[in-house]
Amino acid sequence: MWETIPYPFGIGKDCSLSETYEVNCTSLTIADANFTLVNIFPEGHIHALLPVAHQCYNNHGSISHSQPKIRLSRFLLSSRFNFLTAVGCDARAGLLDLKDRNYISDCISRTNCTKLAKNLCYGQGCMQVPLPFSLTKFRIHTQRVTRQVGSWSFNNCTYAFLARKMHYKFKKEDLDNMQNQSLEVSLVWTVGNMSCAEAKRNIMSYVCRENTECWDSLEIVDEGHPGYSCRCAHGYQGNPYLPGGCQDINECEGPNKVCRYGCVNTNGNYTCPCPNGTHGDGRRYGSGCYALSVISFREPAKAHDNFLYIAIGTGPAASVVLTLMLCWGLKQRRTIKSREMLFKKNGGLILHEILLESKQPSNTAKIFAARILKKATNNFHKTNIIGQGGYGTVY
Predict the structure, then answer these.
(1) Please, which pLDDT band fits residue 304 given cuts at 50, 70 and 90?
(2) DSSP secondary-structure letter at 187?
């Protein structure tokens, strides 16, 4: 059982959104519904218990049965998370719509039970089918398909029930031992009876509070609208149905460090400043921080890219000038790209990362921009060469 009941549910009329969401803590029920509560999730789901229908036979016919009527109030039996299940050799399970007395869903298990498999529900003694749409009021029905049921030395009962996907595991002992049991199902709870777009037009009845998002229900219903639900926006957590219920998440706190060098929390987000002289997102699993000299290689390339989209119709002379500018721009771009690639290939980024993270002053190593080296070596003049080796030329 859960420790707290999340609003809009509550104990008593003054603690819930309406009587529909009022919880009886003694019987673990909700008004106008006959399921037993197991858990309520703020994300819009309820885990609840529903009874198993059964019908038992002897050579003369039916000797006992239970075909329970289910009322779910406005809470939907999810068509995406539940299966209708038949257990028995030659058993039929069905859901009877109480509105028009028609069967909504039906499944039959095979008569031959000679190859029963534990945990499998594919026809031999057990069969499951999905639901066509979500339901709120129905009867669970079961019966035998042939008169053989009741004349065997085992399995003289048929069973029908609803169960959450992957929750029920079939076993041979269930063929004679499922009377008076209940299985867990998944229900969907929403608010309102309209879409988010419609609900937002009436601010007085719209229940999503600040820093929230509105989500339309994905459930398929036979009539009407399944309603909507509220969730805290990205970067916030809490109860989206309460005033001030969605509070900012401080990503800078906790064991998971999201930034490399420093973290600044903001409403619904955070930033990771880079040290002086560097640029980037600063995030541990992002692009990190890089030297401005490396970034400068990229920025001119963006400027030269613009030349590719200039069209000047001023005669042959302008065409020649434009062609020369394009050739120069492309050449410069290739040079910049080549320098950037060599910087990365020769470990420039790794060296820069080490220097940034070092707690000692960087007296023995320093990264210089290309323009500074060019000026210091007189455009890399050969008279300034003091040696050469496998790692390049030394000036």
Answers:
(1) very low
(2) E
Residue-wise DSSP of 85-125: EEESTTEEEEEEETTT--EEEEEE--S--TT--TT--BSSS
Per-residue pLDDT reduced to its tens digit, 9-21: 998 778 999 999 9
Pairing between strand 61-66 and 23-24?
unpaired
Calculate the alpha carbon distances from 224 to 18, 195, 271, 308 in Å: 20, 11, 45, 57
- Residue 84 near residue 107 (C-beta atoms within 8 A): yes
- Residues sharing a CB contact under 8 Å with residue 234, sequence separation 6 or more, in sequence order: 268
Closest CA to 274 of 255, 294, 254: 294
The pTM is what?
Answer: 0.66
Angle between helices 348-357 and 292-305 (to 10 degrees): 130
Q: Which of 59, 65, 72 is nearest to 92 (CA)?
A: 65
Q: What is the DSSP letter of 249?
A: P
Weakest-pLDDT range from 66-80, 88-102, 187-201:
88-102
Other beta carbons within 10 angstroms of residue 80's beta carbon come to 13
Measure the CA–CA gap between 68 and 66, rounded to whole angstroms: 6
Q: Which residue has the higher pLDDT, 334 or 237?
A: 237
Phi first, then psi: what are they for 19, rounded to 5°? Answer: -60, -25
Could you read off the pLDDT of 25-63 as tens digits, one per residue?
Answer: 889 999 889 999 999 998 899 999 999 999 988 878 788
Asked if residue 70 lies in contact with residue 50, where contact means CB atoms within 8 angstroms, the answer is: yes
Backbone torsion region of residue 24, taken as left when φ is above 0, otherwise alpha when ψ lies between -120 and 50, otherwise beta: beta
Look up tokens 């963006």; give the residue: 302
Structure-model confidence comparison of residues 28 and 303, the more confident one: 28
Mean pLDDT of 332-354: 64
Q: Confirm if 358 and 351 have CB atoms less than 8 A apart.
A: no
